[in-house]
Each structure stands twice: as C-alpha cells, then as structure tokens.
C-alpha cells in the first residue's frame, strides 16, 4: 500500500467547494480483492468511516482519496490502514471491526499507533482492543496485580479479563482460574430454584461460562473444570480461602456489600492476579445499601499495584444502539440530579 498526500490547491478547492484548510491524501492499495473487502458490500464500510470520522472518501480504481480536516484525515488513514492490514493477515472485516477502528482512532497518544496496541494471545487467537478504554484496560491487566474495570454494559470488562486469565493459564503463568460473582437478582425475585447447588447458581454465572467458551474449546473447558484448573463459584464460597497462583475475577462487583468486597480482596495470595469488574449505575442491592465496589474505590484507588480503568459510552462495543441507550440514561440522570440540586437550593433560601 502506498500513500501520497497534499493540501488542495485554492483553484481546485473553490471549484469543489472544499474549505482551504482541508487536507487530502490518497491511499493506493496493491490487492484489489482485499480492497473490495475493505470497502464492503455497496461501499458500506466506506460510508461508515465517512459518517463516523467526518471525512469524505472517494474510491477510483485501487486508490482511495481521503479529504477533510487534517486531524480527521490522519485518523481515517490510520483506521483504513489498520483494517487493510487485518485483511492481509487473513482476518475478516465486518461493520463491528470498522466501528472498532473508528473508536481506536480516537487514541490521542503518538507513542501508541494502532499497530502497537496491546493484544491478549490465547491458543484460539489474539484478542485485541476495540476502543481506547479497552486498550488502557488491557495494558493494566498485563501490568497490575489487581485491576478494577468500571463502566457500562458492553465495554468488555469481563470478556477481556477472562481472555487475560485464559492466556496466563495456557502460558503456565497461573495454575488456575477462579471466576466469581455475587448471586444477586437484577430487580426480580426468582423464588425457589429446584436442583442441586450447581444448578441453582449456574444462571448467575452464565456470562462467565460464555466468555470461557469463546476463549477455548468446550471440551477443554469441561476438562479443566473437572480437574479444578477452572473454578466458577458464587462469592459466598470465597470466605476462608487463600487463593495462590491463580487468576481471580469478580464480576458484577457493584452488587457486593463492603464486607463482602473486603473479604474477597483479602483472599489474594502469592502469585495471584485479581480483576474486579462492575457497573456502578446498575446496583441491585436493597435501597440504601452501600456498594462494596464504590467503597473499595474510595478506599483503595491510588495504592501502588492497583490499576483502575474507567470506561464510558465511547467504549461500548456491542450494538451501536447500546451506546446511545447508555448516553440517554446518563443524560436523564444528570438532568434529575440538577433538578434535585436546584430544588434543595430553593428550599434552603426559603423561596
């Protein structure tokens, strides 16, 4: 792939109605078959990049011209280049990959080009970041003994933690994986559940099982669970244990109490990594109960050896509508908070 770039001459800019400050670059691709995959059916990938990055794209032959604000043009170039290299490696490119490239172009760090982003390598392949927040989180997972992942649904907090755990288990860096979450119902009362203990708690742990099966073959998951190399258990089963040489993940941590959180964190033994993942906007504890996750952050953030990664709506990697839903709820919560604040201020002044 070759690149040429220039600022648009004034006469051409006037004819095309393009602002003088705009920049134009031309990307030339060697493989037309891969270029067709990059463009997508009916150029839908190109349209997605235009809409998501605020640039204008024009394809002629094996060349793609990118025009727009200089910073946006450079970001679009980086996104298109990373997607093309993905195709050169034999990896597919779909709309979700295009969206990921657009999000990753927002990384404002010249020391961290897309080609140098962290990756978690399992025997099923490499798992790469799909947003700036995920890149930060994956870097923390590799460097810190204890990492907190805080943010809305769909940001990959648990999925990436499980990927890191599987990678370390397969590399022999830990002896086992322990996955846990509190058995708190999400605003429902399920009543009596029939069956043995495993059948009772499995519904709460299903997201952890799903992530595991994405990282390794199903028969391997079953075998490792039988031998104790992978353990999935409710939080209540952690009391009294010391977890050494393990990768331990606590999911839905916002639904722990402060006592439960302290109990969990103090299970950490020699050679152990811990990840605590949760969303402070989705607390299902009884009204008035303080979240153990919030309490832990207030107490521990800033201590050496502990990493805290906060995701936001820009890091949501599920359906694009999920990010808009998260944003709508956040805006309503902010408006309600402002209304309550104004009401208290009015009452205080007696007006």
Write up what this structure looks like:
With 351 residues, the protein is of the alpha/beta class. It has a 6-stranded parallel beta sheet, sandwiched between helices. A 4-stranded antiparallel beta sheet has the order 1-2-4-3, with helices on one face. A two-stranded antiparallel sheet has the order 5-6. A hairpin with a 2-residue loop joins strand 3 and strand 4. Helix 7 packs across helix 8. The radius of gyration is 24 Å and the shape is globular. The N terminus is likely disordered.
Question: What is the structure about, briefly put?
Answer:
This protein has 351 residues and is an alpha/beta fold.
Give the topology.
Layout: E1 2-7, H1 10-16, E2 23-28, H2 32-39, H3 44-53, E3 56-60, E4 63-68, H4 70-88, H5 95-104, E5 120-122, E6 125-127, H6 132-143, E7 146-150, H7 157-170, E8 176-181, H8 197-215, H9 218-227, E9 230-234, E10 246-250, H10 258-265, E11 273-278, H11 292-300, E12 306-310, H12 320-349
Parallel strand pairs: 7-11, 7-12, 8-9, 8-10, 10-11
Antiparallel strand pairs: 1-2, 2-4, 3-4, 5-6
Q: What are the secondary-structure elements, in order, as H or E?
A: EHEHHEEHHEEHEHEHHEEHEHEH
Low-confidence segments: 3-11, 109-115, 186-190
* Total helical elements: 12
Kindly state the percentage of residues in helix. Answer: 40-55%
Specify Rg, calculated over alpha carbons.
Answer: 24 Å
Question: Which shape, going by the Cα principal axes?
Answer: globular
Beta-strand portion reads 15-25%
Q: What's the count of strands?
A: 12
